[in-house]
Design brief:
Largest sheet: 5 strands, antiparallel
Protein name: Heat-inducible transcription repressor HrcA
Radius of gyration: 26 Å
Domain Heat-inducible transcription repressor HrcA C-terminal: 106-326
GO molecular function, one term: DNA binding
InterPro entries: GAF-like_dom_sf, HrcA, HrcA_C, WH-like_DNA-bd_sf, WH_DNA-bd_sf, WHTH_transcript_rep_HrcA_IDD
Distance between the termini: 48 Å
CATH class of the largest domain: Alpha Beta
Number of strands: 10
Family: Belongs to the HrcA family.
């Protein structure tokens, strides 16, 4: 059990993880004693490594090789041993510069995945806000042709949803403008899911039946707010996996890319982060997605003071620099949240 580890075992485990992250090769006893951190013989170090292997924190990839961390070893390292470092000033500047200078929500979210990929050399990932999470700001209607209307819904934080409607009743351009004004006032500052309920309630009231314009506006509003668009997962830099030696194994890289193609697994994982409203580190077999290809997913929620809107993070090999990557993901989520307050 982790509680049974003494200080020497903890420091040796920390050293093995950090050495393996740096070199990418199995770590042996002589390699550790040469680091100068431990005043013990190679024989004593071998015994400590054997104990950590017996407890499941390390494993030997080959019979004559050194040892590498297991998922359990990484988990104990992340939860107990890692000493996180604040992002370097240059990294903070790059994150601010990339996110603050974008204008639309889609551009900001795409840039968040790009900047994380650029800084970590792992795949940057963003879970976009659900349409139902949008707080309604206004709605506009644009005639496309005689029986087709484009509804443009604008959320408080810059989210824009377009939906083409087929109308089976006559409506003039002037009526579309008045319907837009009426619905924008009725639904202002209301979450989209609640907006649908408010429209249904208005339609149930008898007075709507006596006002032709109101009835048309409500029918347009009901159709426009019936959005089926799910969250999207934006991924930048999946080719970075090919740069890592552990993904030289063809079957491993195939398993990873199959998992990336099955977006529902990643979506489910990132949605867990959004629901719990806190950063998560999923290592290897800890999740259905991260088990594929032996990867780690580090993700943090972003949003406004009113609500969590989505998730931002990275996907990389379990052999990643957790000391640096965890603070970068956390800082990116903080900057993204502050930007969304102003979008």
């Amino acid at each position: 059990m982790p509680d049974e580890l003494g200080e020497r075992e903890k420091e040796v485990l920390r050293a093995v993880v950090q050495e393996y992250i740096t070199t990418g090769g199995p770590v042996g006893s002589q390699q550790l004693t040469r680091r100068g951190e431990f005043e013990v013989s190679s024989a004593t170090m071998r015994n400590v490594l054997a104990d950590l292997e017996a407890l499941g924190f390390l494993e030997k990839p080959h019979t004559s090789a050194g040892r590498v961390p297991t998922d359990r070893g990484y988990r104990f390292y992340v939860d107990t041993l890692v000493k996180l470092r604040d992002p370097a000033p240059r990294d903070r500047e790059l994150i601010h510069a990339g996110l603050v200078h974008e204008s639309s929500l889609d551009e900001v979210l795409s840039e968040a995945s790009r900047v994380l990929h650029s800084l970590t050399r792992h795949a940057g990932v963003v879970l976009t806000p659900r349409p139902d999470a949008a707080v309604f700001q206004r709605i506009e209607f644009l005639r496309l042709r005689e029986n087709r209307v484009l509804a443009i819904l604008v959320g408080q934080n810059g989210q824009v949803h377009n939906k083409a409607l087929t109308v089976d009743f006559p409506v003039t351009s002037d009526e579309l403008i008045k319907a837009s004004n009426y619905l924008s006032e009725l639904l202002h500052q209301v979450p989209l899911e609640e907006a649908r309920e408010r429209i249904r309630a208005e339609m149930d009231q008898e007075q709507a039946l006596y006002n032709a314009l109101t009835a048309k506006a409500l029918r347009l509003g009901a159709a426009a707010t019936d959005l089926q668009t799910p969250e999207r997962v934006l991924i930048e830099g999946t080719g970075s996996f090919l740069e890592q030696p552990e993904f030289a194994d063809v079957e491993r890289i195939r398993a990873l890319f199959r998992a990336l193609d099955e977006k529902h697994k990643l979506l489910h994982l990132l949605d867990r982060v959004q629901r719990t409203k806190e950063m998560h580190v999923f290592i290897g077999a800890e999740s259905e997605f991260s088990a594929a290809g032996d990867v780690t997913v580090i993700a943090s929620p972003y949003g406004t003071a009113e609500a969590v809107l989505g998730t931002v993070g990275v996907i990389g090999p379990t052999r990643m620099d957790y000391r640096r990557v965890i603070p970068l993901v956390n800082f990116t989520a903080q900057v993204l949240s502050s930007v969304l307050e102003k979008v």
